[in-house]
Amino acid sequence: MQKLKSGVHFAATDLIKDISTWLMIGLFFAALVQTYVETDFLAKWGGSIWSMLMMVAISVPMYICATASTPIAAGLLMSGISPGAVLVFMLAGPATNVATLGVVGKELGKRSLIAYLTGVVGTAIVFGLLTDFLVTTYGFSVQPLSAGEHEILPHWLSISSAIVLALLMAKYYWNKVITVFTQRSLAH
């Protein structure tokens, strides 16, 4: 019971402190990308290396989990983007968002961050090129299924978890503001 208690305390304090700012930055960039980048713009690049590099540029700042990237990937496939470029999005997006990169850089250093980013992006592009090669060589039909909704967690649990996360982040920022004001008032 003590281990469970200390794990929950760590998640509600130290982990929130480590990810809050990066999560907010990631959500900001994700909103910018989703608002200002049209899928028609990406579809014209086809299955070239440029479309994959564009997917990397879009997916790196985007804060998106593997589950959330699947419907976006289906939409990208339906809009004409190559399966390889969509795979790059699905591999690079969840693994390299601004929040993750911030935490990796802070905890492991810049050198590890560059190695991590290079490994993930390089692997994603190699497998994206391989996917496009296999699709064109063997004539695979890649038709996304847009019907049906599948959830891992019940909707109420997802919403409740988001509310708890938002409250913990608000508490962290509130305490940070109070600390700054207290330090300023003590300094005067």
What would you say this structure looks like, in words?
- The chain has helices at residues 2-36, 39-43, 49-59, 66-78, 83-95, 98-108, 110-138, 155-187.
- The chain has 188 residues and is an all-alpha fold.
- The chain has two domains: 2-150, no CATH class; 154-188.
- The longest helix is centred in the N-terminal third of the chain and has 35 residues, at 2-36.
- It is elongated and about 70 Å long.
Number of domains: 2
How many E-type strands?
A: 0
Rg measurement, Å: 20 Å
Largest sheet: none
Helix and strand content put the structural class at: mainly alpha
Could you report the average pLDDT, rounded to the nearest whole number? 82
- Give the N-to-C terminal Cα separation: 45 Å
Beta strand %: under 5%
General form: elongated
Subcellular location: Cell membrane
Main location: membrane
Family: Belongs to the UPF0718 family.
Protein name: Permease
